[in-house]
Amino acid sequence: MGEGRETKINLPDCYNDAMPYKYLFFDDYSEGAHPSILEALARTNLQQEPGYVMDSFAVEAAGFIRERFGCPQAEVHFVASGTQANLAVLSAILKPWESVIAAETGHINTHESGSVEATGHKVNTVKGHQGKVRPAEIEGMVEMHNFDQMVVPRAVYISQSTELGTVYTRAELTFPKSVRNMAFIFILMARDLARHWLPEPAILVRKASPNSSTCFISAVRRTAH
Hints:
Elements: H1 35-43, H2 56-68, H3 82-93, E1 98-103, H4 107-110, E2 123-126, H5 135-144, E3 152-160, H6 177-180, E4 185-191, H7 199-208, E5 214-219
């Protein structure tokens, strides 16, 4: 956008809750890159590297991820978008009869062309608050699915930041014991890691869920390094 240029955007009604906030982090492509990132791209533009994420930058980035999450044996796979990451992981970790809980504004429910449900996994939506899934809603969704012919909620999809541009606090990511004991798989969609403090709450979710597997999904288009 040119400096001083006023931009008018018509947003769906579901975004109205977030409008009073001064800063909105809708995604990682509504703005350009930080000047230091553009400088780094220009500096390495003519540096020849092998393709298919075998380049030195991808290898270094994978090392940063393993170190940050304290998991040196982890396999790190990069994909081109968050939609591909959501599809690949959810279809791999859920059994055929299991579903994923998400806020009604969640990306897997609104903007991914039904890719998750195309694999046979239902997205159970809850209203949420300003784009955030609340513990009581998780409990309510589980209690609702109490019949043999119904799907079994197994995963909880959390966007950080949310699709409304709001951000979970540490307290909001500290789920009560009643939820932790349900042995959910918490899926954290990391939107633009370079600008947010995601790794800390991501680790918090992992520690808060000792009885479950925890998977972290990230679609990163920019990096701080």
